């Protein structure tokens, strides 16, 4: 009987450990309202996010960001039903977030200044500036 109790306790502990380790939201800052965070192949996401860039009300916040080459950022669409992109011309960075989702993007670019924008809403002024150090 004692063996079964020990086995059951071990299984519960393993389940809790697996759930805690498998949660990408906790590891990367998560999406809005606990939405899962995924990694973008468009920027080959990786590493720990150094900042969150919000997409809401047809604008980015903050409108100007500075990162080191190789840093990861979280791009979070906080509009619940409006998709947005995070696009930088001349690079492989071009992700699409459905409303209420987020993605981590590694900014693996040569130092310099880049314009980022939403392909869907650029005409509405949805753009910003990225400085890579």
CATH H-level name... which superfamily? Cupredoxins -  blue copper proteins
How many beta strands in the DSSP annotation?
10
Helix residue percentage: 10-25%
Q: Which architecture does the CATH hierarchy give at level 2? A: Sandwich
Number of helices: 2
- What is the fold-level CATH name, i.e. the topology? Immunoglobulin-like
Coarse structural class: alpha/beta
Helix and strand pattern: HHEEEEEEEEEE
What does this protein look like?
- By secondary structure, the chain is α/β, with parallel strands linked by helices.
- 19% of the residues lie in helices and 38% in strands.
- It has one domain: Immunoglobulin-like, CATH 2.60.40.
- It contains two helices and ten strands.
- Strand 2 (49-56) and strand 3 (59-61) form a beta hairpin.
- Mean pLDDT is 77; it is low at 3-45.
Topology:
Layout: H1 2-21, H2 24-28, E1 37-39, E2 49-56, E3 59-61, E4 64-67, E5 71-77, E6 84-87, E7 94-97, E8 102-107, E9 112-117, E10 127-132
Parallel strand pairs: 1-8, 2-5, 4-10
Antiparallel strand pairs: 2-3, 5-8, 6-7, 9-10
Which key terms come to mind for this protein?
133 residues; disordered N terminus; 5-stranded mixed β-sheet; 19% helix; 2 helices; Immunoglobulin-like; globular; alpha/beta; 3-stranded mixed β-sheet
